[in-house]
């Protein structure tokens, strides 16, 4: 029986561990908190993140990275983006044979503004990894834990590795597609959290469905604009890891980014909101990274800029919305560059 190491015992890491256990794999679920690891090991629960859910006997908790990685055929990383590099540095000193690296982290590294697959490739020598795969898509951990129908994508430049990851996770309630556009999948998964903050903010202000539909649609345009500039395939953004993930994160109370934005819209300050959440809100730091990337690459991202100003420049949410509504008139559909048009035509 294959063993999978899952690093990160939050709601998403725990839910994905359940998928792997349902598929017959033994799972070593690592937490940096000993008390949480012991709860998973002895009580078969993770009450803080998935209350009321009973975990399979195939899932064991540990706060030892060495124990989690011992004899593992693959490692699934589900730690906060800001912690990814530090965890990888520790992994590098432990593993001795190449294994498959899969990550389900929807964020960008603070400071360097690098995608998670780039961080993995920088920290783990090629001799210690068979490939790097990204898992992303419209998927609330709370629903996956209840085995509700869910569909995601796994992406890698190595299609055989993507198919290997597909085999790990695919089952009757968790459908997995493959994709070769790692850049698009990671950018879509990370930046949708910014738009989800905005969706919650609108709800907190008391605005309705019209405003939210506009935010989601124009938010997707921003994500696509940055993603294609970084080398992503434009059609990725109308798929599961683009529009699909954007819809589920902007419209559900399960979304911690939506909940954080909702509190901001009601007048709470960012520090207070983060303290109340008690969990990582990836959209906050991703907004900082995307804002810096947009400026560096000279890309217009007005929604991202507005969210950044609310988060870090203390702009009132209503003022930010008013400024977005009063921007100069423009066409909805932007002309494609010749290279982008040719890229799309080749796929038809």
What helical percentage do the residues reach? 40-55%
Radius of gyration: 20 Å
- CATH-level-2 architecture of the largest domain: 3-Layer(aba) Sandwich
Low-confidence runs: none
The spatial strand order of the largest sheet comes to 3-2-1-4-5-6-7-8
Domain module count: 2
Count the strands?
8
* Total of DSSP H or I helical runs spanning 4+ residues: 16
- Tell me the series of helices and strands, N- to C-terminal: EHEHEHEHEHEHEHEHHHHHHHHH
Alpha-beta classification: alpha/beta
- Overall shape: it is globular
Sheet having the most strands: 8 strands, mixed
**What is the CATH C-level name of the largest domain?**
Alpha Beta
The CATH topology of the largest domain turns out to be: Rossmann fold
- The span between the termini is 42 Å
Average pLDDT confidence is 94
Strand content: 5-15%
- Full CATH superfamily name of the largest domain: NAD(P)-binding Rossmann-like Domain
What does this structure look like?
This protein is an alpha/beta fold and 348 residues long. The chain folds into 2 domains: 178 residues, Rossmann fold (3-Layer(aba) Sandwich), CATH 3.40.50; 152 residues, N-(1-d-carboxylethyl)-l-norvaline Dehydrogenase, domain 2. It has 16 helices and 8 strands. The chain has an 8-stranded mixed sheet with strand order 3-2-1-4-5-6-7-8, sandwiched between helices. Helix 7 links the parallel strand 7 and strand 8. Helix 4 packs parallel to helix 5 and helix 8 packs antiparallel against helix 9. The protein is globular and about 60 Å long.
């Amino acid at each position: 029986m294959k063993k999978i190491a899952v690093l990160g015992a939050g709601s998403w890491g725990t839910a994905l561990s359940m998928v792997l256990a349902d598929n017959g794999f033994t799972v070593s679920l690592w937490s940096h908190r000993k008390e949480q690891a012991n709860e998973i090991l002895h009580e078969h629960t993770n009450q803080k993140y998935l209350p009321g859910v009973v975990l399979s006997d195939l899932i064991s908790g540990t706060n030892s990275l060495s124990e989690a990685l011992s004899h593992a055929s693959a490692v699934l990383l589900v730690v906060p983006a800001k912690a990814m590099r530090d965890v990888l540095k520790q992994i590098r000193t432990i593993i001795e044979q190449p294994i498959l690296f899969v990550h389900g982290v929807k964020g960008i590294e603070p400071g360097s503004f690098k995608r998670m697959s780039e961080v993995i490739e920088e920290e783990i020598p090629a001799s210690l990894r068979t490939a790097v795969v990204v898992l992303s898509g419209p998927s609330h951990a709370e629903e996956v834990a209840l085995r509700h129908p869910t569909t995601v994508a796994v992406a890698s430049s190595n299609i055989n590795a993507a198919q290997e990851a597909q085999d790990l996770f695919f089952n009757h309630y968790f459908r997995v597609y493959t994709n070769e556009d790692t850049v698009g999948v990671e950018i879509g998964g990370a930046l949708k959290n910014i738009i989800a903050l905005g969706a919650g903010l609108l709800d907190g202000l008391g605005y309705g469905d019209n405003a939210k539909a506009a935010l989601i649609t124009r938010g997707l345009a921003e994500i696509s604009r940055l993603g294609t500039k970084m080398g992503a395939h434009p059609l990725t953004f109308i798929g599961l890891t683009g529009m699909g993930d954007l819809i589920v994160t902007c419209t559900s109370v399960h979304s911690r980014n939506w909940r954080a934005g909702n509190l901001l819209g009601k007048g709470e300050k960012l520090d207070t909101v983060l303290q109340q959440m008690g969990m990582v809100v990836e959209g906050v730091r991703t907004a900082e990274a995307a804002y810096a990337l947009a400026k560096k690459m000279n890309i217009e991202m007005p929604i991202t800029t507005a969210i950044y100003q609310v988060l870090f420049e203390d702009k009132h949410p209503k003022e930010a919305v008013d400024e977005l509504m009063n921007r100069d008139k423009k066409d909805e559909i932007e002309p494609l560059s010749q290279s982008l048009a040719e890229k799309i035509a080749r796929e038809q």
